[in-house]
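Q: Here's a chain of 277 amino acids. Please give me its 3D structure as tokens.
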Amino acid sequence: MSAISQCAFGPETEVEPLLSNILVPVDFSERSAGAARFAVQLARNTHARVTLLHVERPPEGNLFRMAEVARSVEQRMAAFLPESAGNPSVQRIVRVHPDVAGTILCYGEENGADLIALRTHGYGAIRRALQGSVTANVLRNATCPVWATAQEFSTMPTSWLNPERILCAASTASEGDRVLAWASRLAPQLTAQLCIAWSRKGLREGPEQIDRVQRKFRIYAETVVERENVPETLRDAVMRLRAGLLILDKNSWPAQGLSRLNPYEVVRHVSCPVISL
């Protein structure tokens, strides 16, 4: 990165609500409970509904136990997140299927989810390759934005629900336009200041287009030191700005020999949640 730009939205800014249907995959762990609590609170702020979805893999070699497994899981789902048990805006769904990530993605697309919220263990590449990662799969293939974090917490940080600053990351002017168009609808609902970090390549190859995007969103630039490692660069930018949320385009810059940025690696590095578009 070689530039960070900022703009603020006043209370008079009127923006159409961005979120109406938040999907939260849960595995009954404390991590997924944390993501679910965040989603429920976010839904209150944005007047959205929440769907808690658990996908249970069927028992191997015993299809006759599938109904029994489904009943057991439905009981666990009913007891999950008891503080939201009577909330009419929170729906609970159970599916039995061997492909957990694929079922989550299909359910989100078929039911019009406009955000998927989940947490990850933040495993490295080797362990993730051995065990697989539902989060990495969803981040890579979802057609709607995905909120994710690898951060541990005992109580939800207030900065997650009410971030002072939202940092957007973009390489080119077209990416910046797309990310900012989405983020500029979210920022007023969270009363957050909106910032953007451009790549050095974008600044060098399209200064006029970037200037147009900055004028469109009323943004003015600052300078930040660039590093070769994109996730580490974004981590440092988040820390410097004390951003409570990072928004990026998963089809953004090629990084470290990859054809596109790996949002999972960014989630592992930064200290705030990430929304991948």
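Q: Can you summarize the key feature?
A: The first strand starts at residue 3 and ends at 7.
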